[in-house]
Amino acid sequence: MTTRTRATRGPRTPVQQAVVLVGLVFLLVGVLGFIPGVTTDYDSMKFASHDSGAELLGIFQISVLHNLVHLAIGVAGLVMARTASSARTYLLVGGAVYLILWLYGLLVGHHSSANFVPLNTADDWLHFALGIGMIALGTLLTRRSARTGLGR
Q: Which of 19, 32, 82, 112 has the highest CB neighbour number within 10 Å of its CB?
């Protein structure tokens, strides 16, 4: 008779807990983007175009692609929360991507065909806050473990 034991996992580090929360929020935002009422002008949503008139909460311009990206980022967060080092990487790389997306949104005209995600001014500044916030979490929540060699 063979006995199987399950590998026990230790408690999640603060950075892993943060990434689970961030991932769940992105999943929630991705799902909410597909719900009429939560998303205003839902019937004008395009797959990927600056012409998409749908707005999450009546503020953030979205499209089907935008919602799918939120869902993918959420799933990536939950997967990368498995280890402290991958959770940190998720926050730092994700934060950098959001800062690049912020710059992209500022430099590309909101009515340009290059604005395929689509992005509006509210999206731009949310991306800035997300970028700074994710980088701050990735840095601050791993400072102690990086110094002591814990959480790897």
A: 19
**Whole-number pLDDT of residue 149:** 55
Q: Which parts of the chain sit beneath pLDDT 50?
A: 5-8, 152
In a domain, 2, yes or no: no
Q: List Cβ<8 Å contacts ≥24 apart for 95-101.
A: 95/130, 95/131, 95/132, 95/133, 95/134, 95/135, 95/136, 95/138, 96/131, 96/135, 97/131, 98/127, 98/128, 98/130, 98/131, 98/134, 99/127, 99/128, 99/131, 99/132, 99/135, 101/127, 101/131
6 lies in a domain? Answer: no
Cβ neighbours around 43 below 10 Å, total:
8
């009515």: which residue's tokens?
111
Q: Can you tell me the distance from the alpha carbon of 75 to that of 148, in angstroms, rounded to the nearest whole number? A: 30
Could you give phi then psi for residue 102, rounded to 5 degrees?
-60, -50
With contact defined as beta carbons under 8 Å apart, do 40 and 55 qualify?
yes
Among residues 39, 40, 17, the alpha carbon closest in space to that of 29 is found at: 39
